[in-house]
Specification:
alpha+beta; 49% helix; elongated; single chain
Length: 345
């Protein structure tokens, strides 16, 4: 049989914050995780109303919910309640999920045992999952447009040229038509290769990130007439494959945004390693924009900025965008170098 000390140890060992609240909504006990989660000391919470942990805007509604629950208390497992916000001592809020379990404690008095789980990470993953689905759909739409606008039109034109070639009687004209068909086929092949490189850059595996970025810059110049002045260090041995892909995609997105929206003809890209990180910077002197209103760039561009942030975060890196109207835009991305860990103090 477990004694009182064992039950206290189990209470304190719970991975969730645990609160014991009486019928009047007063906190009578809490575990160590509750102290850690909310930032209040045990003395600051014991004997206080549970509304201390509720944001001001939600306290009246919470009192109503608590009163209704007190009229017919029953177990409410985690995941079956509402997603709520909890207030920390420093004034910040965190998304939480709460399970409730009525119990008679302390001379048979009615209490509710509340388990509170921080779902910040789960909410971030849900948002990321939604972004990944949207990104896949966005990519499908992009491929559909490019296949239709470029390759389908090219193939239709080739079909017409081949028919005209078959009907051409003049030998000289036939040779000239054959040369034009060969030129069109070569152009279409290059276009397909460019699309494949955009989806899965072979240079990234074969030659490293510097060579792969160089291919992007050449394609951007061919397509948009946009020149990239690049200063790229050889950093391939310092990046694991996942971080290399993330940094590659971030630079690709930033350069494409500049080519499409900055209203200038050039940008500067740097890539280098220092202090346990590999850093890339994309700078243009274009029109810039207000970050809070970056939807003005168009849906794809705004989504691209959010996607760059997520790519950096997924590999433990950071991304910063500095911009304002008329003052250009700078995108700085940093990802951890291979095998690097911060020094322990």
């Amino acid at each position: 049989m477990l004694d009182q000390g064992d039950y206290t140890a189990v209470f304190d060992a719970s991975p969730d914050a645990m609160l014991v609240v009486d019928a009047e909504g007063v906190i009578r006990d809490l575990n160590r995780q509750a102290v850690t989660m909310f930032g209040w000391s045990r003395e600051e919470l014991e004997g206080r109303k549970v509304e201390r942990l509720i944001p001001d805007a939600s306290r009246v509604r919470h009192r109503r919910h608590r009163a209704r629950y007190g009229e017919a208390p029953q177990p409410r497992p985690m995941g079956e309640g509402l997603e709520l916000e909890a207030l920390r001592r420093d004034g910040t809020t965190i998304p939480v999920e709460i399970s409730l379990s009525p119990s008679r404690l302390g001379r048979g008095r009615d209490h509710v045992i509340c388990a509170v789980r921080d779902i910040s990470a789960w909410r971030r993953m849900r948002r990321l999952s939604g972004m990944m689905i949207a990104a896949a759909e966005n990519e499908r739409k992009h491929l559909s447009r490019e296949l239709h606008d470029e390759f389908l039109q090219s193939l239709v034109a080739l079909k017409i040229r081949v028919k005209l070639l078959a009907d051409e009687k003049d030998h000289g004209e036939r040779e000239r038509a054959r040369a034009r068909v060969a030129e069109d086929i070569a152009g279409t092949i290059l276009g397909v290769k460019r699309m494949i490189r955009g989806l899965l850059p072979p240079e990234l595996d074969r030659q490293g990130i510097s060579a792969a970025l160089g291919s992007i810059f050449r394609d951007v110049e061919d397509v948009y007439g946009f020149t990239v002045h690049a200063r790229l260090e050889r950093v391939d041995g310092r990046l694991d494959p996942v971080a290399a892909v993330a940094l590659y995609r971030i630079v690709q997105e930033a350069v494409t945004n500049a080519a499409q929206h900055a209203e200038v003809s050039e940008a500067v890209v740097t890539l280098g390693a220092a202090n346990g990180a590999v850093r890339a910077t994309v700078r243009d002197e274009g029109r810039g924009f207000d970050l809070p209103d970056s939807e003005a760039l168009g849906g794809d561009a705004f989504f691209g900025i959010a996607g760059m942030h997520e790519r950096a975060a997924l590999v433990g890196g950071t991304l910063a965008v500095q911009t304002s109207p008329g003052r250009g835009t700078t995108v700085r991305a940093s990802v951890p170098a291979r095998g690097w860990e911060p020094k322990k103090e």
